[in-house]
Design goal:
The complex is a heterodimer of chains A (113) and B (112). Chain A is mostly beta strands. Chain A contains no helices and 12 strands. In chain A, 0% of the residues lie in helices and 48% in strands. Chain B is 0% helix and 58% strand. Chain B starts with a strand and ends with a strand. The chains are: A mainly beta (113), B mainly beta (112).
Amino acid sequence: GDSVTQMEGPVTLSEEAFLTINCTYTATGYPSLFWYVQYPGEGLQLLLKATKADDKGSNKGFEATYRKETTSFHLEKGSVQVSDSAVYFCADGPERGGNKLTFGTGTQLKVEL
Amino acid sequence: DAGITQSPRHKVTETGTPVTLRCHQTENHRYMYWYRQDPGHGLRLIHYSYGVKDTDKGEVSDGYSVSRSKTEDFLLTLESATSSQTSVYFCAISDRRDQPQHFGDGTRLSIL
């Protein structure tokens, strides 16, 4: 089966720093791609998604672009806040409308003042 | 927030005992999923359901069974719990295959 690889954490940044969390996938074709965020003690929440090549998903200042040529979906934010401290998961879903997600192992982000 | 309730939220039990976790949704979504979350593994799919009485295995289904007798409820059963099943379990739902999944708050299960 396919796999999703994301950079290991924890990642520690100062407030207002630039964030990049790398994510690559191995699925062939054109899977849907997702970023989920998990705050302490909570379930996962969808942060953003992209469903076809060159799509850019965005939400709450976070962005990720579907790069078919590099099979990547890196998460970026120009200026992080303390409230962004959480665990971030990259995931892909199979093409042709299937809905079984494959998750990366998660990247913990800690933002300090 | 999507109407998903997992129960119990926390449970401690002993090896060899049966355990049932419940996921209840008020969204009338067709698809329901059970995942486990473990350090270094992210989330792994245990079982999923695509309708009442329609279920299928995920990547880590050994030692688990599920049932869905009503649209709103999806039960996960550990017939004889083992320490390797200590984990945080998440339920998720989605309306259509091409829609994102929405997650419950999780059940923390400890098996001693």
